[in-house]
Amino acid sequence: MRWTVGVFLALGVGMAQTTSGSLSDLSGLRSVLNAPGELHLVVPQITPWALRLREWRTAGPTTFYIPQSEARKYCGSTLPIRVLPGGVKEPVGFIVGQGGTLEGIALRGLGLIYDPGWAENDRIALWMGLSGPRAGRAWVEGSWTGGLTARVEFQVTERYLGDPVTTSYLFNHVWDGRIQDVRAQGYDPYRVYSGESLTLVEASGTARGDCTLRSRTALVEAGVDTGRTTTSAKVACCGGDGGATFSFDPGSGVETFRSVQTSKQCGWLGCTRRDYVIYDLQGRSRGYGVGWQCGWGWCQEVGIHPLRYETRKTGEEVTARIRPWLERVVWQPQGTFPVEPGGFVRVNGEVYQIPGLEGYGKRPQGVGIEWIRGEPFVSNLAIATGLMGGQVYRGQVMSLQEYCADVR
To answer: Residue 236 and residue 327: Cα distance in Å, rounded?
Structure first.
C-alpha cells in the first residue's frame, strides 16, 4: 500500500510500527468501522453508501468532509458535515484514537462511497435454493473472492411400500382372488381354506403383503346316491294296487315317498306277490318295494337309495394385509460444479441460477477499501491534514453552518 507521507516529512513526524491490508467482506468492514475513536470521512460527495457506513458505526461519532462544490446542496442538513476549501481526489477516512492513545485506522478507496458488492463474509458454506428446469438445492461453499462451488441435489419423488394396512372382506360370491390392485397368488376357488395364508402380488409381480383365508361352506344335496341302498321290512308300502305314501329315512334324512305297483302275482285265493317302484316327491325313482304272502300274513320290504350330499364353498372370508404405495421427496446428488458469474451453475447440460448470488463475480471494478493501522501514524496523519486543527488546512476547514452563512 502506498500512502502519501510528504506531509509527515514536512512536519517532521516519525512513522511508528504500522499494519495494513484490504477488506473483502461486510463483516470485516463493520469490524473496522467500529474501532473506538472518531471517524472522519473525506469524500467527494455523501452517497447513500457513505450514509450506510455511518449507520453501521456505533463506536463513536462520524463527521463528513466534503468540498465546497458539494457543500451548498447540504445547507440545512443536520448531518455532521465540515467543508474543505479544495477538492477530494480519492475518498479517505480516519478513525482517530481518543484519550491517552493515538492509535488509529486510515481507510482509502472507492468502497467508502460505493457499494463494493461484498457478501457478509468472504467465505460461505450454506444451503441455497436452485432456480431452473428442475427443483433443486445447492450447498454453496468457498470464497467470494477466490471462487465458489455448488454441490447440487435435485428433488426427486420416489415411490415406496408403506406399512401393511389390515382389512377384512367377506365375498358371498365366487371370488376371483383379487383385492384392489393385487391378487392372491395360487388361489384355488374350489378349495376349502381353513386359515391358510397366500402372498398378495400386483400385476408386475411385486409382493405387496399376504392374506389369510377361511372358507364358508354349506352341505348341499348333490342327487341320489345309487351306490347305496337302505332296506326295511317295517314300512307299510306294498299291500295294494294303489300303492302307498309313507315316510322313511334312507340314511340321508326322513323323506316322504310313494310306491307305484309295477306287477303282481294273484290266484283264486288272492295275490301272493306285488312289486313296486319307489318315488320321492320330486318324481325321482329312489328304489324298489315288494310285498308277498308269508304264512297267514303279508310281508313287505323297501330298498331306497339315500340322497347324496356334498360340502360346497359358499363364500370366502379374507383378512388382507396390504402394503400401500406411498410417495416421498428425496434429494438426489448430481455432483459438485463451479459457480459462474451471476450465480449460474451448469448441471448435466442445463443452466441453473442460485438466487442470492446474482452479484457473484460482478463486483464493481476498483471498488474496494484499503486500511492501515498504527500509533501514532494515523492520528498524526489526520492532524497534519488539518482535519483536527493541523497546519495544512488551518483556518480553512469550516462547519457546514459557517459555510452556508457565508454564501448567503
So the answer is: 79
Q: Phi/psi class of residue 358: alpha, beta or left (left: φ > 0; alpha: ψ in -120 to 50)? A: alpha
Residue in this structure with the C-alpha cell 462520524, named with its chain if needed: 62
Cβ atoms 248, 306 nearer than 8 A? no
Model confidence over 183-211: pLDDT tens digits?
Answer: 999 999 989 999 999 999 999 999 999 99
Question: In sequence order, which ranges of 138-177 are alpha helices (DSSP H)?
Answer: none
Question: Which stretch of DSSP H or E encloses residue 327?
Answer: strand 325-338
DSSP codes of every residue in 188-252 = -TTSPPEEEEEEEE-TTS-EEEEEEEEEEEEEEEEEE-TT--EEES-----SSTT--EEEE--SS
Would 102 be classed as within a structural domain? yes
Are 152 and 168 members of one domain? no
Q: Is residue 1 part of a domain?
A: no
Report the pLDDT averaged over residues 42-64: 89
Residues 141 and 105 grouped into a single domain: no
Distance, C-alpha 306 to centroid of its chain: 70
Asked if 188 and 216 sit in the same domain, the reply is yes
- Strands lying side by side in the sheet with 18-22: 18-22, 370-374, 104-108, 92-96, 38-42, 62-67, 81-84, 398-399
Domain assignment present for 359: no
pLDDT in tens, 96-108: 875 545 567 888 8
Are 141 and 125 in contact by the 8 Å Cβ rule? The answer is: yes
Looking at the fold, whether 20 and 75 belong to one and the same domain comes out as yes
Which residues constitute the domain of residue 377?
A: 6-118+364-407
Structural domain contains residue 131 = yes
Question: Is residue 233 classed exposed, middle or buried when 0-12, 13-18 and 19+ CB atoms within 10 A define those classes?
Answer: exposed
232 plus 274 within the same structural domain = yes
Q: Which three cell numbers stand for residue 325?
A: 404405495
pTM for this prediction: 0.47
Number of structural domains, the chain?
A: 4
**Tens of pLDDT, residues 5-22:** 333 333 333 444 667 777
pLDDT over 70, % of the chain: 86
